[in-house]
Amino acid sequence: MNLNNCNNFKDFRELAKRRLPRPIFDYIDGAADDELTYARNTESFNSVSLIPSVLKSVKDVDMSTTIFGKKISMPVYCSPTAVQRLFHYQGERAVAKAANKVNTMFGVSSLSTVSVDEISSISECPKMFQFYFHKDRGLNKYMLDRAKKAKFDVLALTVDTITGGNRERDLKTGFTIPPKLNFNSMLSFAIKPSWLFNFLTSPAFELPHLQNHVDEGTSAVTSIGSYFSNMLDQTMSWKDAEHLRSNWDGPFALKGIVSVEDARKAVDIGCDGVIVSNHGGRQLDGAVSPFDQLARIVDAVGDKTDVICEGGIQRGTHVLKALSLGAKACAGGRLYLYALAAAGQKGVEKALFNLRSEIERDMKLMGVTRIDQLSRGNLNFN
Fold first, then answer.
1. Strand runs (DSSP E) across 151-221, as ranges?
2. C-beta atoms surrounding 237 within 10 Å
3. In the predicted model, is pLDDT for residue 219 greater than 70?
4. In this structure, what DSSP letter does residue 223 have?
5. Residue 220 has pLDDT above 80, yes or no
6. Would 28 be classed as within a structural domain?
7. Of residues 204 and 73, which shows the higher confidence score?
8. Residue 69 falls in which region: left (phi positive, over 0), alpha (psi -120 to 50) or beta
9. What tens digit of pLDDT does each residue of 283-333 get?
10. Residue 177 domain flag
């Protein structure tokens, strides 16, 4: 298999699996506990069917949408994900350039391996900075100020990582940041020589937003779960979220909302968006899927704030179903991470253009030419 043969999400996953060492692949691919929520995130889209309409003159399709005051050319953006240089030596640079080419939003993690400053210099597309609320308040201020200086468009506070999820695949493979190249893990890395060569010959792995403040993940090896549990502030409250919002000048969102009550509170503290997400099933296994909660949250706050559906998106039809329920856009991590691992920037571009083509084709087959023509009348609830 090569990039030319990657026509869908599963193809990119298979190619990524062939190219990544097992600990790295399982970090992307895995989730919490029995991974039931991870599976449900995609399976939930099967709970409704699409009802197409015909004879609608659908030659010209406009799939653009506006989120957080920014127009993007397709109703899907790249969610922020950590440590992307572990998946491909180009890391966030590749995703930023690909998102720029497609003209969609790119989310950059607090735990990114490329700085917000550099991302701003190489990409003109709308950009979101994903904020982890640390115990170290000096670090929080530093990250906030750096995102402001880099002129990021949106700040998204992640609220579902108050402690690390039980990611058992990472425990089995010994995945850490940075990777430990010891006797036990060396074989997994050695049998993927291309990845190992690129990792060892590229500039040293670093987390530029953290390295002057904490050792964990930079000079000291840690797991993602341990990082969340030990470094993030478990006293974080609605008051802290409101204070952060008051110190950010642009659009502000909470990422990791699945409760209607929490969505209402988000609006009350001045959020411009709620990102309905369960962290890709990587935190609380058994939690409700974003799509299952989407209609309830849209009904509660959709007229007051942008509602984004994040999680489980693998097909253009998934996007259309979420939009029909009232989401302003969809987002995902794995939908481009497998492609990044498979082929760097070219892989991410192909994955995004594949999805864009699916959405356009599916809109035509549904009989719509703009996403605001989608509604719950397009859906049959099975």
1. 154-158
2. 10
3. no
4. -
5. no
6. yes
7. 73
8. left
9. 999 999 999 999 999 999 999 999 999 999 999 999 999 999 999 999 999
10. yes
H/E element, 88: none
- CATH assignment at residue 221: 3.20.20.70
Peptide bond into 126 cis (omega under 30): no
How many domains would you assign to the chain? 1
- pLDDT bin (cut points 50, 70, 90) of residue 184 is low
Taken as a whole, the chain contains a residue count of 382
DSSP designation for 80: -
Q: Per the domain annotation, does 382 fall within a domain?
A: no
Q: For residue 75, give the nearest of 107, 39, 113, 105 by alpha carbon.
A: 105
What is the structure's pLDDT at 187?
84
Going 292 to 168 to 33 to 222, the CA torsion angle's sign is negative
With beta carbons less than 8 A apart as the criterion, state whether 130 and 107 touch: yes
Cβ partners under 8 Å of residue 214, min gap 6: 134, 136, 139, 231
Residue 93's identity, in one-letter code, is R
Cβ distance 307 to 301 under 8 Å? Answer: yes
Q: What residue numbers bound the domain in which 172 lies? A: 3-375
Catalytic residue positions, numbered: 279
pTM exceeds 0.90, yes or no: yes
Note whether 20 and 195 are within 8 A (CB). yes
Strands 252-257 and 76-78: unpaired
Contact, 15 vs 342, CB < 8 A? yes
d(CA 2, CA 232): 40
**Residue 329 in domain:** yes
Which pLDDT does position 222 carry in this prediction? 86
Distance CA 168, CA 133 (A): 24
189 or 375: whose pLDDT is higher? 375
Q: Percent of the chain, pLDDT > 70?
A: 98
